[in-house]
Give the backbone structure.
Amino acid sequence: MPPVPDPTLFDKVVNLCKRRGFVFPSAEIYGGFRSTYDYGPVGVLLLRNVKEEWWRSMVQLRHDVVGLDAAILSPPAIWEASGHLQNFTDPLVDCRKCRERFRLDKLDDPNECPNCHAKGSFTEARHFNLMFKTYAGPVEGTGAEVYLRPETAQGMFVNFKNVLETSRKRPPFGIAQIGKSFRNEITPGNFVFRTREFEQMEMEYFVPPDEAGKWYEYWCDERLRWYVELGIPEDQLRLRAHDEEELSHYSSATSDVEFLFPWGWDELEGIANRTDYDLRQHAQASGESLDYFDPALGERYVPYVIEPAAGATRTAMAFLMAAYDEEEVAREGQGQGESRTVLRFHPRIAPYKVAVLPLSKKPELQEPANEVLGLLQPHYMCDYDETQAIGRRYRRQDELGTPYCVTIDFETLDDRAVTVRDRDSMAQDRVPIDALLDHLEPKLS
Ligand code: ATP
């Protein structure tokens, strides 16, 4: 049976995020700042893990991709050449009746206002440019205008020559970058799904033009696999090819990796064949040649580019949604039933890998607890918690998605062993402190 979205999941995850310190509304003490969010102590770890896993698979485990960290502030010339000044627009309509504003291309029915249900109440569509503009230096005005990048990709194109000359890479090769992008979205919403400030993970893979089709297929498969390997169930993921009208101004083919969000299928990542559009545009506008002489072929060509472009913040949200579970369980140690909420993150995505929990705050347990913490911290991100009943502390760690809890009790003082509790099965093993790292390593890697 195909999976069905669960609309109740959205509020549950948003509440959990606030309650446990994943995501806070920005500037909350001032009443909040619409559709901006801050990542709390646990959320920052989740987001870092998402980015780290992407970097590991895209850069560290490959020999054909190198990294880059380009500037966010950029001169109009870049966006003029890339086509963003002219084309990076969304069609905006206003409802004349309730005055709400919408993106025309995201409406289910372009003739009916989803807010007040008036028919035919929309204004003519206006094209609204999504780029944030600001001014560099003390004088505001023409000549001082700069843009916050709306995608990280252009940093890779304008550095193509620098990287080619310094990295000894030759097509097919890629440049990867993770960083903030900014879009003045008309309708931000669905929590961190669509925000005006967000993080992207993008890679531009430069290939000989006649190999572009092959590499496009390759990256579609690779990228889908990444999400599955990190624990998103396969039936909650799909690849969807864009039809002709949906394609961006630079693209000859695009497929989206989509996830089954509580409101239905929606995009996590786009994989696009950007052709030689960007390099040609920048070469023409800057006067620099951005082609490549292939000594084996004895030919000069402008590489085609295959781009897997993912959102880090949006992907973190998908991992949260996919991990969320509620179940009835026997109360640990008592046998009575209770329900628990658990985030079943893949260990590589989980914010904390291990929680160190001395059974009581008594001073004699502090020394072995510190010893265990000191043993684990160089290897794993650990939480430490010594107050409240142990059952409540386990529930808290379940809600953070911590795969293992290590409990230090009074027996530890005699046998130098600890209890290791598994998040998913709730099974408990007694493990000598000296064997703890070896016990955890295969489970957490
Ligand atoms: P959409 O159609 O949802 O506006 P897009 O197709 O314009 O997105 P791309 O330009 O392909 O998005 O950007 C690549 C990725 O960056 C998206 O798949 C998404 O994960 C992320 N992304 C884009 N815009 C936002 C945003 N406003 N907030 C959070 N993530 C975003």
Q: What stands out?
A: The longest helix spans residues 43-60.
